[in-house]
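Lab channel / #folding
Pinned by the channel admin:
"Please post every new chain as: sequence first, then the structure tokens as a reply. Keep commentary short and put observations after the output so the thread stays searchable."

First post following the new format, from NK:
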Amino acid sequence: MRRRASLVLLSLAVFFAALAPVLRWYAFPRLVRIPPGQYQETVLEARPATLLRYDTMRAEQVEKVTIVQTLKGNVEESERIERSTGRDVVVWDSLSHVQGPDGETVSQIPGRYIFDGHTQEPVHAPGETVDGDPVRREGIEFKWPFLTEKRDYVYFDAQTRTSAPIHYKGTRTFRGLEVYYFEQTVPWTKVPYPEKMPIPGIDAGTLEERTGTTRWYTTTRMFWVEPATGAPVNGEEIHTEELRGGSLLGGRDRVTAFSGHVRMREDYVDRTVAQVSSQRGLVLLLASHLPWTFLGLGTGLLALSLLLEARSRRPGGDGAPAPGAGGAGGAADREPGPA
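Reply from TO:
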């Protein structure tokens, strides 16, 4: 009986020990993905800020500048691209809407970000754009991969339409969460004018050609990333834009178009931390908790199986005759001695 039980336990031990790596290395990368229809909105503010008034072409100090960043999952487009690529694709239609202190529009930059829903690697397909310009992204944007590593990543910058390393700067604690801190500095770079600007009748596509005035940009961006989900729980930028030369500036060499320390608004930080905290548990359940539990269970069952097997082989155990019970060499088999 003990031997039969030990064989059952051994089978269960093998099953759970084999299930642990299958769950972690096969099931997890295929089950965990970003939903294709997800919608996100983040509000950031620069308080105070320097902002160019285009009616006077003079920079002024203002109380605040607000940036509303939206990411809207385009399910129809993701399904179309999935059919041609054979991958689980997510399509985010993004919009960065910049507002002045009175709520007036300063600029709008739309875009379309196409990426693998499991790995966050970019998927190159028609429609990948920034402000109407076709682009070919390399690296990540908006979100890090699940199970983010302590290393540098390549990050796409929508203003310059180029990619560059964003550097891992260490592990920190943010609102009770362990996070990885990343930082990237984009040096002064000439960038296109946004298609939508607060100048009536101006064609942004020909503005530089007609006036000779160029637009330049630099930023230092900072992200606090929860590593299990790869989701930033906080983001900041020290951001500066300038117009340089040409007829728009009336003989001046340069003028600041925008300058400020952009931070996520507190209510959006709180909401993001709460949302990421709940998602973190689900990711860790599949990536760590269940595999380690199954491995521990398999090890325990194996130990119990070996213990039962050892006991079954002891004298008097199941499958082994007890001394004097009629086995070979027992008293019942010996010839009677002389009277």
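NK: The longest helix spans residues 266-312.
TO: also worth noting, Residues 1-31+285-318 form one domain.
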